[in-house]
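quick one, two chains, predict together pls
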Amino acid sequence: MNPTPSSIELPFHDELGFCNVLMSAIGGDGANMAAKLLFKACVSELDLDGAYDARYGSEKKGTPTDVSLRLCRLGTPVHESGPTNRPHILCVFREALIQPLALNRGLQKDAVVIVNTSKSPEDIRAELELNSGTIYCLDATTIAVETGSRLNVPILALLGKILKIPIATLREAVGKTWPRAREANLKAFDRALEGCTQKRFEADGKFELVPPIEPRGKLGYMNMNDGGAIDSVTHISLSSNTPSASITPIPEFRVEICTHCGLCLLVCSDPGSLVWDDKKMIAIDPVFCKGCMRCVEVCPETKKGKALTEPLGATSTPTSSEAEAVLVKRV
Amino acid sequence: MSLDALIDQESDAKRTAIAKQVIFIGNGNDAAAKAIVDIGYDGEGYYPITPSSEVGEVVSKAIAEGSADMSFVVGTSELAAISVVAGMAIAGGRAVDVTSSQGLMLKAEQMPAISGMGLPVVLNLATRDINAPLNIKNGHSDLMATLGWGWLIFCAPNVQSVYDLNLIALRVAEAVNLPALVAYDGFHTSHANRRILVLQNREDVQAFVGSKPSRVTVLDVDHPRTFGPYMNDDLINTKVQLDEKFKKAYDLIPSVFEEFHELTGRLYQFAEIYGHPEAEAALFILNSAGEAAKVSVDKLLAEGKKVKVILPTVLRPWPEEEMRRAIGSTPRVVVAERASQYGAGNYLANELGATLQRVGRKNLLISRTYGVGGLNFRGEDGIELLNLGLNYPNVNEDERKLRGYYGAWPGDPNYDPPQVFTPLTTEETTFNQEGSKIDFKHLSQMPARVGKHSACPGCGIFTNLNLFLRGIDGQVVFLFNTGCGMVVTTGYPFTSFKTPYVHNLFHNGASTATGIVEMYQRFRAQGKIKEEITFIVVSGDGGDDIGMDQVIGAALRNDPFIMLEYDNKGYMNTGGQLCYTGFKGERFTNAPVGNLGRGKKQHSKDIIEILRGTHAPYLFTAAESNARDMIAKARKAQAAVRSGNFVFGKIFSVCPLNWGSDESKGNEIVDRAVKSCLFPLYEIEHGITKLNYDPEKSGRKIPVQKALEIMGTAFSHMAKEDFAPILQETQEETDRRWQRLKELDTNPKL
């Protein structure tokens, strides 16, 4: 038998008694696992109940994903399902998702926003167009890289602190859940609690509250093709906006070393990433490349080194103007 | 964290039930699996389909860990899985299955046969819409299709009731010898994690469902019976019997509900009524949306509005009297359904209408289709629909119609997107002149016919496809079976294909291609089509398990198209379940490695050898590690279809996500698979086998372990000591197959 669950006061309540947390990440970041862990810890160790849902589809690794946690006092009926569309707390695993996904939609007044970034809260507020609330800027990437953990652990630690979950309980759950990565994770957990930049913003009229956006595309029952068929010439994916591809680091390409042997082209798993013109490789297109580094593996070693190498920093190769011209031509 | 649910040892003091219960945290699929394991079924027949796949994974994990003792069979298809279940039941076993959507459709043939034979099996249905275009999310068109199949139907609106109704359903099913369906909403319930209560002791579960009632089985040699005879005029009498069973079930169900109430403190009824006893408007709505509409009722009641929501728990037998009572004198009832009968009154609206009309009741029914394709249904949606009932007929003209859609949108009439590319011409895609040497630089100019996609980084599918397509000239039409390759390329409203493309479900690609090619040839002969087109069907290895018969059919008819199989050794689109192509010992989500689990139990399926018996003109295997060979085979394949022949090619394809392998190492992994002879490169032309690469000859052959060890966590455990016998067997089987191929290569007459 467990002792009586500890009592905690959640920082927010909507009219149904829920504190809504939304995590925005890309597949593989571990947002799903973090939310599940937090849900289990809250429901089994504290006097809380709630719902843990996600927006599911056929999302693959590297594509954006939403994870939702709605917490309430034990005894509050949990009727609705599906992810929250009115978060009090927003956790952004990848800053680059803020604008393409319009993450301010549905965000409540005086929200809490945790962002994995090295930028300042002021910069993030401008990017997010936050009406009001507190922005916590945590460099989770650096913590994860330096400790050998993942993005989810530092963000989870900070979220736990903000939710006022007893830190020891959460820390223990992290250790127990991933026994093989225990040491790295706990280091990351502690690092995240050492502090981050934070700032509170009043509703100063700079940005309006934005209502949740429902899935209403430009194509509907009046103008959709019969049976939902897609016209390729107007709706080819290369003109679509998929933010994920530009999030992951992509190989460095040094055109001056390249022998244009074509081995990279044979193994590339994202057709269109390697930009070739007139039998010569001229650039990597960051819109297509997801950074698997298959090409780096096969790129032959020359006297001057390899033309394709793993990036040192997290930045992607800027596209040369020559390559840009080809990209325009291709579209 | 793994998907299996955590069981807390804390008891819930608030309940006054007889049996001890504990908190269980998990989603709807976990709850179904928990019930299956606790009931102690004899067997489960299984085939993966989103969103119900997880149930079998959790059950197979329990078997691997030794906490469940039951037979678990992965079928080649949904129909196979439910037929396995039928077999188990005919042999007297307690058997269970899970499915969704198209999976249920494929089982359709077996469903009325199971009820016809009176087999009390349970099928969990995580509801999902049936459709083209493909949508994997919630909808009740699958559930509604079952209404006349002679199955008991229980509807579980939340995670708690998934567990509870699994126990209740089996109890009722066995009492009346009818099969039972437990329907819960795909994703909205199947993937919703909640805190629920479960019985602490399996003995209590087993005491509630009771011991298996005895019936004569096919194993009873002392009482031989002929099951499923041929029957003419007498058939109608079996239907009377079937209907009588539903009457018996109708009489029995309240007492089972009551007994369950006493055991657990949770009371189920034919229909749950939530709201005002003298409601002026009601919402009649199934499952998770009904659960969510309780929020709407609370809110409207607080505003002084008299409303209620009615959630049916039992659809078959249709509890007519209880449904009338539930509706009572409420003048207007909005019947909202996650399905439509298109061009006719809706399923439940019709049924309710008839139920009311039979006793002369005049309640007005307003029918709406909502939430199809997984659109979320929240409290605010319930408020809209209840207000429609409250305000009717004082609503706008559009809403006054008694049948219609809620939540659909017309689109932007001014939307006129620009053309962003010019379709590829035969000239700009011609690079493989006959006899020309394979020059990668030259081929770098071949335009990509398949572009930007949302597959995982390092996915093998697109490496293979693009490599192969460099050897294919001119106009191409693609047909994709359902699988990763399909979902990551055609997410509406965008497509990755610059060429025409068709997807026609999981296993129908080969036959659909046959139909298309027949018409192509016909119209070409008539002079209506000038350009030559090459048709390429792309399927995962899973599509060639479920669609094996259709592939064989196309091969036997020698239909002129290329069928390419990207073999990534599993059902990867649904989360890494066992496919017959997998290697012995390979870890799958439904063939785990645990105390007793040793991964896949059989050696890999060899589809080329299966197709050898069709005497198809050109069969081959190919791998990205041997790029020149793959392009040569593409050219040969195109030449073969151009001269009117069927071609099948199997291409080894890495899956970094579900193999747990390094994204960057795809090429090396494939190279090792080839060099270890786990994936030998060869071709069969009109029965003559030719090895295209002999690693033995060049001294490059490596032990299978050298390949498996870098293939990721789905395979690397095989290098461990306790897997030594399995590794040894895999080595021996690989060598045996390799030696046989060598013999075939040296002796063309074999």
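The two ends of chain A are 65 Å apart (CA to CA).
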